[in-house]
Amino acid sequence: MKVINIGICGLGTVGYGSFSVLRNNCLEISRRVGAEVRVTHVGTRRLRPGQDIGSVKKSSDVFAVVNDPDVHIVLELMGGIDVAKPLVLQAIANGKHVVTANKALIAQHGNEIFAAAAKKNVLVAYEASVAGGIPIIKAIREGMAGNSIQWLAGIINGTGNFILTEMREKGRAFADVLKEAQALGYAEADPTFDVEGIDAAHKLTILASIAFGIPLQFPKTYTEGITKITQEDIRYADELGYRIKHLGISRKTADGIELRVHPTLIDADNMLANVNGVMNAVMVNGDAVGSTLYYGAGAGAAPTASAVVADIIDVARMISHPESSVPALAFQDDSLSDVAILPMSEVNSAYYLRITAMDRVGVLADITEILGDCKINIEAIIQKEPRGADALNQRVPVIILTREIREAVMDEAIARIEKLDGAAEKVMRIRVFRLDQ
């Protein structure tokens, strides 16, 4: 039986998880591939407590793995870009196939990496870079290959979803839940990538490319975090029949492709609105199949290792039976589209607005007049009564749900509202996405 040798660069949570899956399921994997798949070289500075790699060769220099002539497939599981990018490019230059879970690397440098791989006739597989154990890349790239995809929307960062779930279900403050997420290992000591949407933007960039056949364009992805979401917003969303989720959304329109990550109101009855805790889910709409939902664990050693090993099997099959392979971004390299990515100002959306206004006669009329001038239709209004003995001139929240309008128009309306004498604070804006659209 043919033997395919694996080199692992990085033996952290995902790296050792992948090593364990390959070791524990070696017979099943060999049956699927038609060849023996084994780890022969590991690059890591040190083994962590409890890690046992047996007699497998270990190097402290990860470049020793990619330069090992006996290694056929390199697993880049270190994360980051500074070392990972030259490592992957060196592996490709050496004629080795690459499997990676590095979403930042693919989102920011994937175009260069895939071009290099094409010249050397090797594969770069990256299923584990998005949504952990959910096989969403394979589903879009292969399972939905016969569809013209209309849109996709996903909860693709478990940390943000955990925070919003705890805030809604237990009435906790953002800062309090964030501290717990860090203690549980869901969030890093510096949680910026998670709570500001950068991690989700990396993943959305990848999904949009394979869905719509466009080059990877991370710098054009609109990104907004969840740090400004309050208990008030969560309560008012509930009153209106919605949930607040941190979504990555990409939609094909007549004017271009939407590429955006931001807090979003979703109808409470929708399946995606009921994905809670650290779980991930992606909904994809195709013209033939309609809407499909992919749900599961978006992180963790075993779920991510499941995706890594699935990629290894795909690459190993190609090595063992090199008749054909699926293009890296689903579409043939020479047929990627140059369709424009829409700036956020050109995106159409419905909106939730929380306006803190002074409780004076005429303030609400002034607000609705501005919306009317901008041709923004109102779908619902919630106006809370002032409380206490000194109710005069108190600040009260006014909640407005609008119909769909272009973002630039809403920007203008919000700027005018914030200049009103009766407006006490900045307007809180959350976009609404109806998943049946």
CA(first)-CA(last) distance: 52 Å
Strand content: 15-25%
Question: Unreliable segments (pLDDT under 50, ≥5 consecutive)?
Answer: none
Shape: elongated
Structural class: alpha/beta
Write down the CATH class of the largest domain: Alpha Beta
**How many beta-strand elements?**
17
Which fold does the CATH topology of the largest domain refer to?
Rossmann fold
Number of domains: 3
CATH superfamily of the largest domain, called what? NAD(P)-binding Rossmann-like Domain
CATH architecture identity of the largest domain: 3-Layer(aba) Sandwich
Instruction: Give the overall pLDDT as a whole number.
Output: 92
Quaternary: single chain
Radius of gyration: 24 Å
Q: Give a short account of the largest sheet.
A: 11 strands, mixed
| Annotation field: number of helices | 14
* Helix content bin: 25-40%
Describe the fold and architecture.
The chain is of the alpha/beta class and 437 residues long. The protein folds into 3 domains: 3-133 and 301-335, Rossmann fold (3-Layer(aba) Sandwich); 136-297, Dihydrodipicolinate Reductase, domain 2, CATH 3.30.360.10; 348-432, 2-Layer Sandwich (Alpha-Beta Plaits). Helix content is 35%, strand content 24%. The chain has 14 helices and 17 strands. The strands form 2 sheets. Strands 7, 8, 9, 10, 11, 12, 13, 14, 15, 16 and 17 form an 11-stranded mixed β-sheet that branches. Helix 7 crosses helix 8. The longest helix is centred in the last third of the chain and has 20 residues, at 301-320. The radius of gyration is 24 Å and the shape is elongated. The N and C termini lie far apart (52 Å). The model has no long low-confidence stretch (mean pLDDT 92).
